[in-house]
Write a structure and sequence with these properties.
The chain is α/β, with parallel strands linked by helices. The chain has six helices and four strands; from the N terminus they run E-H-E-H-E-H-E-H-H-H. Helix 3 links the parallel strand 3 and strand 4.
Length: about 140
């Protein structure tokens, strides 16, 4: 099974842990690493490496980080550059984490990374557009009488 490490600024990761566990329960091979104000970026990278080692069973490790270009992202990229069995996706949200945790046995590391990066599991929606599409669908239906 793919390992997953979630990281972000301040309490992003621990907040996501609370939400993920409330929705799907505690998941194996899923770690959360906060980058708090008292940490240096070297300490962050060491924490990410330790988390990677804990979740890695040989199928690969996916880092899900909050902001592209932020320290958690940049330090995860350092690990990606040293290990072909590591991928990083930035811009993570709750639905991505939940879906990655639930779907990781169905996909390879590369496949899951691509699905997440292309928004397959993000559930980002423009609700005005969705509601307009639904109302158009309703207008075209008849009750058959």
């Amino acid at each position: 099974m793919l390992g997953i490490v979630v990281s972000g600024h301040i309490n992003f990761a621990s907040g996501m842990r609370s939400a993920v566990e409330a929705i799907v329960g505690k998941q194996p091979q899923l770690e959360f690493v906060d980058f708090v104000e008292s940490m240096t970026t070297d300490e962050l990278e060491a924490a990410l490496l330790a988390a990677k080692d804990r979740v890695n069973t040989g199928d690969g490790v996916l880092f899900l980080v909050d902001l592209y270009g932020g320290s958690p992202c940049n330090r995860a990229i350092n690990l990606l550059l040293k290990d072909e069995n590591v991928e990083v996706v930035a811009g993570t949200n709750l639905s991505m984490i939940v879906n990655a945790a639930l779907e990781r046995e169905e996909f390879s590391l590369g496949e899951l990374t691509e699905l997440l990066a292309n928004g397959e599991f993000s559930q980002i929606k423009n609700l005005r557009q969705d509601l307009a599409a639904l109302s158009q669908d309703d207008e075209g239906e008849s009750d058959g009488l």
